[in-house]
Amino acid sequence: MNRLFGFLTINTLALLVVIPAYAATITLSPTTVSVVKGQNISMVIQVDPAGSKVYTVKNSISFPASLLEVASFTQSEGWVPLSMTGYDSVDNTSGTVIKTAGYPSGFSNIATFGTLVFRAKESGTATISVTNASFAYDAQSKNALSGAQGSAIVTITATATPAPTTIPPTKTPTLSGTVKTPTPTPTPSVVAASATPEVSVVPLAAAAAGTTLLGLGLAWYWWLVIMMVLLVISWLWRRRK
């Protein structure tokens, strides 16, 4: 019985040694994105130690250079960049970018490494991948990464040409029924005031003669008779003398 117990104990310990701990991973976010040709894509790089304590991380990322190019990289706070040959480079011709940095106090929870900004060059589908050249070193300088790492798919569409705006022609409204033409309002005629009314000359002269001679109101022919009578009397009187 003791031998059996010892055998099971040894086998159990051996299995515990063989079973690996959870591996650290490097991921990209967002994992899928759609953009238009000429636009930028911000890709956040995150490191998950998966229970280990990590001090140094190297990111080796590949992308299709025919579709994308690296525009910029921003390191997150708390990291100390390692600017050395083979650890810090951007190659838009071959489509690779390498960024390495150390975290002095180490970290055991998910941490943001930095942000890569890509520019979409041509239309198509581009895959951005974290390659197996990456590592995440623990305190013993062992790589905590294992297995496939993060990736992202970018769908790029060609720049859409806006359709021209067509303005429909203005239609003149059609009136139904008989169209009546409004009667113009007559303009009132202005009658000039007469300076002096016309009066017949003959009646006026006759009236003047009949009303002004000797201040009497006799007709003019009576005055003629009286004058003739006076002339006859005067002639007779002279003849007697």
Outline the structure in words:
There is one protein chain. By secondary structure, the chain is an alpha+beta fold. The chain has 2 domains: 21-157, Immunoglobulin-like (Sandwich); 203-240. It is built from 3 helices and 12 strands. The strands form 2 sheets. Strands 2, 4, 6, 7, 8, 10, 11 and 12 form an 8-stranded mixed sheet that branches. Strand 7 and strand 8 form a beta hairpin. The longest helix has 21 residues, at 220-240. The chain is rod-shaped, with a radius of gyration of 63 Å. Residues 1-20 and 190-216 have low confidence and may be disordered.
Q: Low-confidence parts, pLDDT < 50 over ≥5 residues?
A: 1-20, 190-216
Q: Write down the secondary-structure element order.
A: HEEEEEEEEEEEEHH
Specify the helix fraction band. 10-25%
Overall number of structural domains? 2
Task: Name some characteristics of this structure.
241 residues, alpha+beta, 2 domains, disordered N terminus, 3 helices, single chain, Immunoglobulin-like, 4-stranded antiparallel beta sheet
Q: Briefly, what is this?
A:
With 241 residues, this protein is an alpha+beta fold. It has helices at 2-18, 201-212, 220-240, and strands spanning 25-29, 32-36, 40-48, 54-62, 68-75, 80-81, 88-91, 96-107, 111-120, 124-130, 135-138, 151-157.
